[in-house]
Amino acid sequence: MSMQQKPSQAFIAASWIALGSGMIGYLIGLWRAEMLLNEKGYYFTVLMFGLFAVVSLQKAVRDRLENIKVTDLY
Fold it and tell me: Which residue of 29, 47, 48, 49 is most buried, as measured by CB atoms within 10 A?
């Protein structure tokens, strides 16, 4: 089963806006939080790992739909 239909420009724009607003909100909250710098660094690292995991999973799912070989991890 191959996926020939591409997402609409409105969906792509909404996805980027949601990602951007979520990241900005998280970073503003982190900046304004009253905690030590090492704690802020920990939460920033958690954000980066989470974003990497989401992008990695999305890429693996898309590759599988396009019949490109991926590992069975996902």
Answer: 47
The DSSP string of the chain is ----PPPPHHHHHHHHHHHHHHHHHHHHHHHHS-S-HHHHHHHHHHHHHHHHHHHHHHHHHHHHHTT----TT-
Could you count the other beta carbons within 10 Å of the beta carbon of residue 21? 10
Largest CA distance in the chain: 51
pLDDT in tens, 5-31: 777 899 889 989 998 999 999 999 999
What is the value of pTM for the model shown?
A: 0.66
**CA angle in degrees (0–180, nearest 5) for 7-70-48:** 70
